[in-house]
Amino acid sequence: QEWRFVVEETQGQVQYVYAQEFADLVSEKSDGALEIDVYEFGALGSEVDQVEQLTGNVVEFAIISPGFTGTLVPEGNIFALQFLFTDDQELNQEILNDSEAINEHLAAKYEEQGIMPLSFWTEGAMQWTGNSELRTPEDFEGFQMRTQESPLILESYEAYGANPTAMSWGELYTGLQQGAVEGQENPIFFIADANFNEVQDHMTISNHNMYVTMTTVNPDFYEGLDEATQGIIDESIEEMRQRGFDIQQEQNDEFLSQIEDDDENPTEIYELSEDERDAFRELALPVRDYYRENGGDDAEMILDMLEEEIEEAGGTVE
Ligand code: 6CS
After folding, report:
1. Closest C-alpha residue for ligand 1 atom 1
2. How confident is the prediction for the chain on average, in pLDDT?
3. Which tens digit of pLDDT belongs to each residue from 39-65?
4. Which residue, 72, 171, 192, 264, is the most exposed by fewest CB within 10 angstroms?
5. Model confidence over 110-143: pLDDT tens digits?
6. Cα 169 to middle of ligand 1, angstroms
């Protein structure tokens, strides 16, 4: 039995390391009977192609970031809302683990579209890079920002006055180098490992949002498995929750110094103050209403419930 697991990142990057460890756990627990082959990004197409491969059962497992399902599952745009979660990534991961809004109601929306999320997890806080300084909303005026495909990510940057364009990360290095786009957002490990700092002069520690992704299976495939096999998959998913968090934390810590120490391609790193973040937060807040109205039938219910859960967990949601 060999199953396929496609990820949106390349060897060594967080999603790939996660998928490989998950495959090893499943193999161990089944005494080698269940084998999973991990396909790195690029092997099977773009991130959006990979969504279709999962729904079409060309692959059994996929790591899918909600940023690439924005039109298929509009409720999934919730993760594009900036300054919604807390600044404590560990707490954010606990919220992702326990949230009924996400694991029941949002997951049901994905299942209707042939995607069964088994866990939602963070790859760390996102930062901005640009070929100019990004410190105030004014700096975003007319700025050509690259984003993932989600309509609400575009909306969020339009709220800052930017001119966002969606593209696959496979085209992003060249896009930044040739000036098709001027900046982008990602966790630090990814900025460094994809070498975006080579073609960007500035990085802003903005922590404006966290990167959320999902470990998913094709629902027909999963439901067709016997209980013991489902149990092995579920157990492995549970064990990977903490591992996933640790993998991203190690990489995000480690790669910051790689950007700082790259003398050949110097990047000016600037950390926003709380006041500076507030200027963005204020412009980001109305986007929540846009989501409630345009995020699909259950958007309002899901966001209201998630806001309550964040508050119960000790966060503030304004
Ligand atoms: O920026 C992107 O689109 C990519 N970023 C990460 C952290 N993972 C994969 C994704 O496609």
Report:
1. 169
2. 97
3. 999 999 999 999 999 999 999 999 999
4. 264
5. 999 999 999 999 999 999 999 999 999 999 999 9
6. 6
Least Cα distance to 215 among 306, 309, 115, 74 occurs for 115
Ligand 1 pocket check: which of 41, 49, 65 to mutate, most ligand atoms within 8 Å of Cβ?
65
Q: Provide the residue type at 16 as one letter.
A: Y
pLDDT beyond 80 at 318: no
How many residues are there in the chain?
Answer: 318
Q: What residue type is assigned to position 302 of the chain?
A: I
Domains of the chain: 2-312 (3.40.190.170)
Q: Model ipTM? A: 0.99
The number of the ligand 1 atom at minimal distance from the alpha carbon of 189 is 7
Assess whether the C-beta atom of 148 lies below 6 angstroms from ligand 1. yes
Ligand 1 centroid, distance to 222 Cα (angstroms): 26
- Determine if ligand 1 sits within 6 Å of the CB of residue 149: no
Confidence of residue 317 (pLDDT cuts 50, 70, 90): confident
Q: For the whole prediction, is pTM greater than 0.90? A: yes
Within a 13 Å sphere around the CA of 257, how many CA atoms are in the beta-carbon half? Answer: 4
